[in-house]
Amino acid sequence: MASKSQFQAKKETTKQNQTEAERNAAMERIVSMARSNNDNRASGYREQSLRIHSHVCAKCGREFSQENLTELTVHHKDHNHDNNPADGSNWENLCIYCHDNEHSRYTEHLAANKPLLEKEREPEGATHNPFANLKQLLKK
Ligand SMILES: [Zn+2]
Ligand SMILES: [Zn+2]
After folding, report:
1. So where are the chain's domains?
2. Predicted model pTM
3. Ligand with smallest separation from the Cα of 103
4. CATH class for the region spanning 40-139
5. I need a labelling partner for 117 at 20 to 30 A (CA). Which of 61, 63, 77, 111 fits?
6. Ligand closest to CA 98
7. What dihedral do alpha carbons 26, 32, 38, 43 form, nearest 10°?
C-alpha cells in the first residue's frame, strides 16, 4: 500500500500531482526512447548515464537537481567517446568544473609523456636559462 509513495517520494517530489496514467505514459516514453537509443547509442549516452548513475558529481560529490542538471556532464573514463557500453561502466557523471579539471589533467598527462623528445630536438630555443645549455654540454 505504501510502496507506491515510497518509490515516488525520493526523486519526484515536484511531480506528485501526476496521475498514475500520466506516469505510465511517461514510463512508456522513456522505454521507447531507450529502445531508439540502441540505434544511435553514442548520441544518447548522456541521458543513459544520467539514468544509470546518481545525479552527483563523481569527483566532488556535488548534488544536482532538475534545475541545474545541465551542469552535470558525462565523462568517458577512458577518454574514448566511441566506447559506450550499455552498463555505463565507461561513464562518469562529473560537474562541469571537475570535468574540465579531468580533461586538463589528461592533456597534461599526455604532454608530460610525449614531448620529451621534442624538447631535446630544440636545445637553444625557448629557454634563456644558461644552465640548461650547460647541462647539455656536460652530457656530451
Ligand atoms: Zn564536481
Ligand atoms: Zn570527459
Report:
1. 40-139
2. 0.51
3. 2
4. alpha beta
5. 77
6. 1
7. -50
